[in-house]
Amino acid sequence: MVNYYDILKVSPEATHAEIKSAYRRLARKLHPDSHQGSEETALKFAAIAEAYEVLGNNRERVRYDKRMLEVTSSMNGSDSVLGSTNRHAQRWRQMVYEKRYNDIIDRMMAEERREAEAFQKVIYPLVAVFVSAILVTAFHPKIFAESTVIGKLVIVTLFIIGIINLIRRIRDGFEKYTETDDNIHDSILDESERKQKPYPRLLAAVVLGGGFMLCLGIGLLIGWQTNFAADVMPNMFADNLRPEFIFYPPIVTLFVDLMHTLASRFDR
Description:
Blueprint: H1 4-8, H2 16-30, H3 39-55, H4 58-75, H5 87-139, H6 143-146, H7 149-177, E1 178-179, H8 191-196, E2 199-200, H9 201-225, H10 228-232, H11 248-267
Parallel strand pairs: 1-2
């Protein structure tokens, strides 16, 4: 049975990220476009592409690892513990097999959990910045104007940290879920990886920018129609939109991201 781990030069315990990195490194090195159509290189490239098609998919990898365990067990001779017909040895062999298979399942679940957390780290801040953009333009908070000097310094500090955090999350999302210009030919990306990066980077940037402007517009429209926040709490909300509104979406996003990070750690 072909050992895909050897082909990609990774350990059977390698994470999805390590497998993907190894595949892309080898693909750059062995891509036929870089070797004038060499047949030997093309065969090697096809082998690593096939290996990544299996190992890069969590469920396919579980099936492959299970088959590898079965093949490994069958290849052991009767003189070994794994090949013995002794009922105690068979029981021990079954326990080892179940332990290894459970490890494979646990690894797959851990990979899927990491993927879900990575997706949430991108989505939650974006949702927070869109919703907060609607709220601040609708209700016209004036917390900054009513704060002391120390309070204003705190708000400005949180704003700067929030901007840095938001940029980092957006960058991570672009790298993970959008197509990027690369020296590698598109043919090295298998179908599963294309599905993970379904959006052109420029289109994603336009959608994010347009979505933010749309949320600002919705908030302004709500603010023109009603002004109850200023009537109920005039010390915190103004009658008209003030320039300080720009401070609040990054700060809200920062707190949402922190709460999600803490919740994820407690969940583990």
